[in-house]
Amino acid sequence: MNKITAPEIRARKGKAKIRMVTAYDYPMAKIASRAGADIILVGDSVANVVLGYDDTLSVDMDVMVHHTAAVTRAEPDALVVGDMPWMSFHVSPEDTVRNAARFIREGGAAAVKIEGGRKRLDVVAAVLAAEIPVMGHLGLTPQSVNAMGGYRVQGKKVQAAYEMISDAHALADAGVFAIVLEGVPDRVAQIVTAEVQIPTIGIGAGSGCDGQVLVMHDVLGLGGGDHLPKFVRPYADLAGDAVDALERFFADVESGAFPSEDETYHMPDESFEILRDLVESETTVDR
Ligand code: KIV
Predict the structure, then answer these.
(1) DSSP of 3-40
(2) CA of 243 to the centre of ligand 1 (A)
(3) How far, in Å, CA of 121 to CA of 171, rounded?
(4) Domain ranges across the chain
(5) What is the C-alpha separation between 105 and 73, in angstroms, rounded?
(6) Neighbours of 75 (CB within 10 A)
(7) Cα–Cα distance measured from residue 181 to residue 200, given in angstroms and rounded to the nearest whole number
(8) What is the pLDDT along the chain (287 residues), one digit of tens a residue?
(9) How far apart are CA 63 and CA 252, in angstroms?
(10) How far is CA 71 from CA 21, 39, 169, 218, in A?
(11) CA-180 nearest atom, ligand 1
(12) Is 143 near ligand 1, meaning CB less than 6 Å away?
């Protein structure tokens, strides 16, 4: 198959639902690709789900580029989008373009995602002017956790919802190829989806978006934490399966059932006898 491009994703609007998932390393990218992902997001959620931080604010460009390069080495057909971390696009348009370019040049990604609406238009425009496709992200933007006062559904009140629709228009007019809508009431997400000519990809935004995205570890039941957000549907319990597999391995180690003959390397009998004689004669001489 050919690599999926940002213009192809944009052209999917109204035609086929977009399937997006996060991945942060080589094996996960292989799995996402085999399953038919259209977009792999190397999300800054790597901070929570892989690195064990409480929020996404702790990861920087070096961490994100490192994980993006691991994902692209899997050579997925999916469009790989690098998630610009907190403080990588807040200083200046020049700084933002340099950081976005690292995702492309060092990480091998073909697009970047930037959280925020009209407040970020200058940096979004600068990255687009550098010929790097940009995905927007509105609603519950986790990098704003301190400013929002926690992780809360956004756009529940009329004014806030209206602002979000205006942000979506501004991003679409600037030229982003898609917008992630996170933690948004379903009818607000539906209005945004109807208002813009580019695809919306929902996470906790109801079924009316043009596509859906979830964090890979949540879908597979690989998360370490007990609490899953309301919008997550785990399709497997890989953490449970992994614990079960390791328990069986350890039990076989204890009982001696592992390794078996088939899992063991052997020296030819003749060589072994020569070696044994040699060791025994040297032992005798030494004493
Ligand atoms: O970092 C991430 O995983 C994300 C998705 C939740 C959209 O931004």
Answers:
(1) PP-HHHHHHTTTTS-EEEEE--SHHHHHHHHHTT-SEE
(2) 27
(3) 7
(4) 6-236, 241-286
(5) 13
(6) 13
(7) 7
(8) 689 999 999 999 999 999 999 999 999 999 999 999 999 999 999 999 999 999 999 999 999 999 999 999 999 999 999 999 999 999 999 999 999 999 999 999 999 999 999 999 999 999 999 999 999 999 999 999 999 999 999 999 999 999 999 999 999 999 999 999 999 999 999 999 999 999 999 999 999 999 999 999 999 999 866 688 999 999 999 999 999 999 999 999 999 999 999 999 999 999 999 999 999 998 665 55
(9) 38
(10) 12, 12, 31, 18
(11) 7
(12) no
Q: For a pocket test of ligand 1, which of 58, 143, 154, 182 has the largest count of ligand atoms closer than 8 A to its C-beta?
A: 182
Let me know: does 42 contact 22? Beta carbons within 8 Å: yes
CB of residue 218 inside a 6 A radius of ligand 1: no
CA-142 nearest atom, ligand 1: 8
Q: What spacing in Å lies between the alpha carbon of 73 and ligand 1's midpoint? A: 21
Query: Is ligand 1 within 6 A of the CB of residue 212?
Result: no
162 Cα: distance to centroid of ligand 1 (angstroms): 23
Q: For the domain covering 6-236, report its CATH number.
A: 3.20.20.60
Task: Verify cis geometry, omega within 30 degrees of 0, for the bond prior to 93.
Answer: no
pLDDT at 247: 98
